[in-house]
Amino acid sequence: MAKPYNQIILFGDSLFEFSSRVQDGFSFQGALQGHCMRGLDVINRGFSGYNTKNALELLPQIFLPPSPTNPRIEYLLVLFGANDAAVPLPTNAQHVPMDQYKENLTKIITHEHIRAHNPKVLLVTPPPIDQLRLDELDKAYGHKEVTRQAAISAAYSETCRQVASEVPGTILIDLQKAILEKATALTPDFDTNGPPLGYPGGKRGALEGLLPDGLHMSGEAYKTFFDIVLPHIGPFPNGFQVYPLWRQMNPGSI
C-alpha cells in the first residue's frame, strides 16, 4: 500500500489561490512547502472570488474523511472574509452579512469532515484593504461605487477574531494586524491622529506596495504572512521524513 504524505491545506479565496505565485522573489506556498519538505504536502485549495457561503456549500466535496488511502490533514489554514465583506451592489453579489459570515466560518472549522482529521486549525483574519486604490480600480472596471470599504473589512476581521476565540483549540493568525503594522512602520510620515492607511481622507502610504491593487497581496505582504504562520507549523521531530534519508538507503555513505 502506498504511504501518503499528510497535508497542510490552505483553504480560502484568491488570497490563498495566488499564494502559489512567485512575487518579488517570494512564494508563500513555496516557502511553506520548503519548511516541511519530505514530511507534509502543502495543498492549495484557494478559490478566487469565493465567500464563506460558497466554501461551506462545497466543503464536503473538497475535504474527504480520513481513511487508509486518504492522507490526514495535519494543519488547516482558513482565510475567508475579503469577499464576504464586499458591499452589496447591483454589479457584485459576493456579500455575506456579518452574522452569517460568523456562523459560516464557525461551521467550516468545526465541520465533521474537518474534525475527523483532528488538524491544528489556524484561522486567518482577512488583511486590510486600501480603499483609495480600490475606488480607482472598481470605478474603472464599471462599478458605480467602490466594492469594498476599509472600515467594513476591518469589522469582518474583528468577527474572525471572535470566532477564533470562541472555538476551542483554534489558533488566530492576525494577518490584518500584521499588515497594518508593517505598512505603518514603512510610512514614516503617517499621522496617527488622522484616518488609518487606506481609508477615505487618508493616504495609501506603504499599502501601495503591500496591496498593489488595494485587495491582493504583494510578495512582501506574503512574506509578512509567512513570518506569523511559521511559528505554528512544527517543530518537527527527528524522523519526520515519510521516506528515509539517502544515507539510510545507502549505508556506508558519509
Summarize the structure.
This protein is an alpha/beta fold and 254 residues long. The chain is built from eleven helices and five strands; from the N terminus they run E-H-H-E-H-E-H-H-E-H-H-E-H-H-H-H. The protein has one domain (6-249): Rossmann fold (3-Layer(aba) Sandwich).
Keywords:
globular, 11% strand, alpha/beta, 254 residues
Question: How are the secondary structure elements laid out?
Answer:
Layout: E1 6-12, H1 14-17, H2 28-35, E2 40-46, H3 52-62, E3 73-79, H4 98-109, H5 112-115, E4 120-124, H6 131-141, H7 150-166, E5 171-173, H8 175-185, H9 207-210, H10 219-229, H11 246-249
Parallel strand pairs: 1-2, 1-3, 3-4, 4-5
Order of helix and strand elements from N to C terminus? EHHEHEHHEHHEHHHH
Q: Based on the structure given, which CATH architecture is correct?
A: 3-Layer(aba) Sandwich
Radius of gyration: 20 Å
Please outline the major beta sheet. Answer: 5 strands, parallel
Q: Tell me the span between the first and last alpha carbons.
A: 31 Å
Number of E strands: 5
CATH class: Alpha Beta
- Derived from helix and strand composition plus strand pairing, the structural class reads alpha/beta
Can you list the strand order of the major beta sheet? Answer: 2-1-3-4-5
Helix content: 25-40%
- Mean pLDDT comes to 95
Q: Which outline best applies?
A: globular
Task: Give your account of this protein's structure.
The chain has 254 residues and is an alpha/beta fold. It has one domain (6-249): Rossmann fold (3-Layer(aba) Sandwich), CATH 3.40.50. The protein has eleven helices and five strands, in the order βααβαβααβααβαααα. It has a five-stranded parallel beta sheet with strand order 2-1-3-4-5, sandwiched between helices. Helix 3 (52-62) runs parallel beside helix 4 and helix 4 (98-109) runs parallel beside helix 7. It is globular. The two termini are 31 Å apart. The model has no long low-confidence stretch (mean pLDDT 95).
